[in-house]
Amino acid sequence: MKCLVNFITRRNNGNISRKPKEIDADSIRIGRATDQEIFLNDLRIAYQHAEIILLDDAYFIKSHAVSGIKVANAITSSVLLLPGVVVQIGNHELKVIEHPDYDLAVDIEQVSTSDTQNETLKLESKLDLNHTKLNKRQLSWIGFAIIFILFFVFPLASSLFQPVKDIAKAVAIIPSDAAWKSGSIASVHHFFKNDCRTCHTDAFRQVKDSACSSCHKDTQQHAADELMVDKNVNNIACQGCHKEHNGADGMLMDSSNHFCRDCHSHLQASLGTKTDLLDVSDFGSDHPEFRPSILSSKSGKEIIS
């Protein structure tokens, strides 16, 4: 048989292009395999999906695939090819047309691309919050409200009202003011570890020196003013040197570099007088060699310390 196959492509601008192909064969095979006379690149189509044959002076298309072919949305295994008949194979349509120079002529067009089907599937599917009764803003506000109530309102109420604190302790899922702890306190303070107000007398404010001195009444000044060039050393806040919430085994004395460096990195400038002590900017990497200090007692005897 002598057959004309027109491959039709519709452009975005509305134009239609035709790519003709002449086939002269006893039968015409249609499928996804590259050796088929009519090659259709579609995963829905079998390698040897269908075949056009001549039978009793009439042309038929016969399906070799289990999925068959469609005519008028009905699946069938074969159909007589008359002018105007439209056969669907996968997502391609084969339409029989009349042509005086050929025994058989057909137009083949891809009617639904994979991209179009994917877009349709996305539109029909509910894959994000926009297709539900909730949205991102609502969920954000709900999450914020839960966190605000659990970790601000309840701890604040338990710090101000003893009954609320008792309820928070009784119900494990309700956080009390303990939720605000930045770490365990030193072991020497464990006798009041569950009473935050012992030190934190005012909510959301720095611990006052009076809170420390109320327990440490007998603690004297750490240095005699007459021996200190900087007379303001005893006016430093308690927590300027003593840091809490560093763990049960943590030191109450600040041992970080900056504690020493604040004064010892520029001794002459901070003291306002000449000194034999050397500046230290870092205890680990910029500390001068240790030197013995020789003191003289009133009797004139030298003491090395």
Describe the structure.
The protein is an alpha+beta fold and 305 residues long. The chain contains 6 helices and 14 strands. The chain has a 5-stranded mixed β-sheet, with no helix packed on it. The longest helix is centred in the middle third of the chain and has 25 residues. The chain is elongated.
List keywords for this structure.
5-stranded mixed sheet; 305 residues; 6 helices
Secondary structure tally, helices? 6
Low-confidence stretches: none
* Order of helix and strand elements from N to C terminus: EEEEEEEEEEEEHHHHHHEE
Averaged pLDDT, please? 81
Largest β sheet strand count, sense and barrel closure: 5 strands, mixed
Helix content: 10-25%
Q: Based on DSSP secondary structure assignment, what is the total number of beta strands?
A: 14
Tell me the overall shape: elongated
Spatial order of the strands forming the largest sheet: 2-1-12-11-10
Strand portion, in percent?
A: 15-25%
Gyration radius over CA: 46 Å
Distance between the termini: 118 Å
User: Structural class of the secondary structure composition?
Assistant: alpha+beta
